[in-house]
Design brief:
about 150 residues; mainly beta; nine-stranded antiparallel β-sheet; 2 helices; globular
Length: about 150
C-alpha cells in the first residue's frame, strides 16, 4: 500500500523569559474512558497501544477532558546495557513513545512527546521546553497518573 502525508513545519515561537518563579500545572491521565490494545507476537504480549483522556484534577471541573494521551510501548527484554550504560529504567523501556495534546481555556495548545513539551501556545506557552514528571497513582484496575 502507498501512503501520502502532508506535513507543515513552522518556526518555533520566541522563548518566553520569566523572571519570577514558574507556575506548575497538574494533569491526570486515566485509562478509564480510554482504550488499550495489546501488541502480541506468537501469543505473547510484546507491547501495547493506548489512548486515554487527560483531565485537570485541581480545576473547577476536575472531570472535564482537556486533552488526549496516546502512544505505544514495547516490552524490551531486560538488558544491562540499556539500564546501566544508557540509563533507562524498566518503566521507560515499557513506555516507548507517547504524545499528547492539551487544550487551554483560551485555545492555547501544548504538544508533548514522551516527557518533553515540544510546543505550547496561548496560556500554556510558558511550558514550552519543559520536562514533565509522571507519578503513577494506580495500575489496577485502572491506570491513573498525575503529571506536573
Amino acid at each position: 500500500p502507498n501512503f501520502v502525508a502532508e506535513i507543515t513545519l513552522h518556526e518555533p515561537p520566541e522563548p518566553v523569559h520569566q523572571e519570577e518563579e514558574s507556575e506548575s500545572i497538574k494533569l491526570r491521565i486515566t485509562s478509564e474512558g480510554g482504550h488499550y490494545v495489546p501488541i502480541t507476537s506468537t501469543g505473547e504480549k510484546i507491547g501495547q497501544t493506548f489512548q486515554n483522556p487527560i483531565t485537570m484534577p485541581d480545576s473547577s471541573d476536575p472531570n472535564q477532558v482537556v486533552g488526549v494521551n496516546q502512544g505505544y510501548g514495547f516490552l524490551f527484554p531486560q538488558d544491562s546495557f540499556i539500564t546501566d550504560v544508557l540509563g533507562y529504567s524498566s518503566p521507560e523501556q515499557v513506555l516507548g513513545n507517547r504524545h499528547f495534546a492539551l487544550a487551554g481555556d483560551d485555545g492555547g495548545e501544548m504538544l508533548v512527546f514522551n516527557e518533553q513539551v515540544l510546543h505550547a501556545t496561548g496560556s500554556l506557552r510558558n511550558y514550552a521546553g519543559a520536562t514533565l514528571v509522571e507519578e503513577i497513582l494506580s495500575t489496577d484496575p485502572q491506570y491513573v497518573a498525575d503529571i506536573t
